[in-house]
Amino acid sequence: MSKPTSGGFEKTPGWLDWYAGPSKPQFQLPPGSVDAHCHVFGPGAQFPYAPERKYTPCDASWEQLFALRNHLGFDKNVIVQATCHGADNRALVDALQHANGRARGVATVKRSVSDQDLQAMHAAGVRGVRFNFVKRLVDFTPKDELLEIAGRIAPLGWHVVIYFEAVDLPELWDFFTSLPTTVVVDHMGRPDVKKPVDGPEFELFLKFMREHENVWSKVSCPERLSVSGPPALDGERKAYRDVVPFARKVVETFPDRVLWGTDWPHPNLKDHMPDDGLLVDFIPHIATTPELQRKLLVDNPTRLYWPELLNGNLK
Ligand SMILES: O=C(O)c1cc(C(=O)O)oc(=O)c1
Which residue ranges traverse the bilayer (predicted)? Predict the structure, then answer.
């Protein structure tokens, strides 16, 4: 049955709802694993979607997100502000405040944000801001405004999350490399997986990480990047194989600067909605040893989002 969006909103035509009844993963997540990229949507009646949004989703509440966390076997979440909420972070902050310390957040802010707002978000668990360059999702924000924001959040110990398409990296390079904080790339900078993994486009992304030790990457979203499929549905255990060489390359080259997330509730998928249990079962194909898995799922996200939990045991 189709899921609702509340508050009098109407879902974007063709919207795919998140998957109900995901399977239990066969891959056992290491203790302390973090789903480091997921979202909440609304609910619209409580937290209206932003007037400037490019899509209207079905609702996806923190209760539903935390139920998925428990079902899949994650310990914690990093909730990333979804573009359908613009720079209104209330749904995100509400989710963080209901998480009992088990969620941290990445917000979207404008130049007009006050220091008091930033402090309040920090107290709720926000640890970063997201700059989005994907044209179908957001209107353009001038770089001087983004740099000003980066300069203001840096002293809080926050980082910048960037979302862009691979073809735009050359043009954005100078801006990205001028950012003063840790920089986390969403979904590997969206490589075109039809192109060779050792071709010039992906090589530029690897060079970006190699030459800048402050740059991290989420090796997430095979369901978005895959061209050949097959989809992670109906028990399919060989899903998204065309993405594996790209994600593996990043995990193995930069094991201490990679993160993984479900991307639940998977905004804007057009073709299918994955079974999140099977998505978790994709992880051992891209992080092939227990050590790489522990770094990807536990050590790295803990270092970035819960540094206060470290007691000298983690590198
Ligand atoms: O590719 C996307 O459509 C997408 C959208 C959003 C968002 O709307 O925030 O977040 C993502 O991580 C991915």
Answer: none
